[in-house]
């Protein structure tokens, strides 16, 4: 879905954020975040992943399909954005996977990552205390650290200091991997 900005902030009127939500529920669950970004003045492209919400088919995507879908959404966003050179790929939690894929595959203004995981192997290790190589779990599609090493665009990583799902060091690892001088890391006090 394309949600045009309100245009009240001339500095943001041409900037479009492609919002990639987390694993829980569908885009309707993330309306507070989407509303916040819209009220700030951004144009938005939001989407339900294959198998989520109203997206078809209703089966979960393979890693290859997920990455392909992300690239297609970015291409769609470029056709809607007032200025395709002022686009931001924003990922929250699981949304970091398609967000980094979008950044890797396209020119854009910036990459924003909120509480995302470095790789699927880190998720497995933190949830089940099982250590498996990344290639055992996927062919590297979910390895955000490896992708960030190839991304030279401005990158902003932020994480709540009360997050119980992913440890703070996970975001710090992503920040360190970002291959750009134009990067920043914020630890947000009191945020989950």
Structure description:
- There is one protein chain.
- With 192 residues, this protein is an alpha/beta fold.
- 34% of the residues lie in helices and 18% in strands.
- The protein has helices at residues 31-40, 63-80, 96-105, 120-128, 134-137, 144-148, 168-177; strands spanning 2-3, 16-20, 43-46, 87-92, 110-114, 155-160, 183-188.
- It has a 7-stranded mixed β-sheet, sandwiched between helices.
- α2 crosses α3 (96-105).
- The radius of gyration is 16 Å and the shape is globular.
- The chain starts with a strand and ends with a strand.
- Mean pLDDT is 86; it is low at 128-139.
Helical fraction equals 25-40%
Termini distance?
Answer: 27 Å
Return residue spans where pLDDT drops below 50 for at least 5 consecutive residues.
128-139
Taking Cα atoms only, what radius of gyration do you get, to the nearest Å?
16 Å
- Integer average pLDDT: 86
Class by SSE composition? alpha/beta
Count of individual beta strands: 7
Strand fraction:
15-25%
Order the strands across the largest sheet as they lie in space.
1-3-2-4-5-6-7
Quick one: overall form?
A: globular
Q: What's the story with the biggest beta sheet?
A: 7 strands, mixed
* Number of helices, where a helix is a run of at least 4 consecutive DSSP H or I residues: 7
Order of helices and strands: EEHEHEHEHHHEHE
From the structure above, extract its key features.
192 residues; alpha/beta; 34% helix; globular
Brief digest:
With 192 residues, this protein is an alpha/beta fold. It has seven helices and seven strands; from the N terminus they run E-E-H-E-H-E-H-E-H-H-H-E-H-E.
């Amino acid at each position: 879905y394309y949600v045009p900005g309100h245009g009240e902030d001339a500095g943001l009127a041409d900037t479009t954020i492609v919002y990639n939500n987390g694993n829980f529920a569908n885009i309707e669950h993330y309306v507070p975040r989407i509303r916040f970004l819209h009220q700030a003045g951004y144009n938005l492209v939001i989407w339900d992943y294959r198998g989520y919400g109203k997206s078809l088919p209703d089966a979960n995507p393979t890693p290859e399909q997920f990455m392909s879908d992300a690239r297609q959404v970015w291409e769609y966003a470029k056709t809607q954005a007032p200025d395709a050179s002022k686009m931001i790929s924003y990922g929250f939690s699981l949304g970091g996977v398609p967000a980094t894929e979008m950044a890797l595959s396209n020119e854009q203004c910036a990459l924003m990552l909120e509480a995302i995981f470095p790789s699927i192997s880190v998720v497995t290790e933190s949830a089940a205390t099982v250590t498996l190589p990344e290639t055992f779990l996927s062919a590297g599609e979910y390895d955000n650290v490896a992708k960030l090493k190839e991304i030279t665009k401005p990158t902003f990583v932020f994480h709540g200091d009360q997050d119980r799902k992913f440890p703070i060091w996970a975001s710090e690892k992503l920040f360190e991997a970002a291959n750009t001088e134009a990067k920043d890391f914020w630890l947000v006090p009191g945020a989950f």
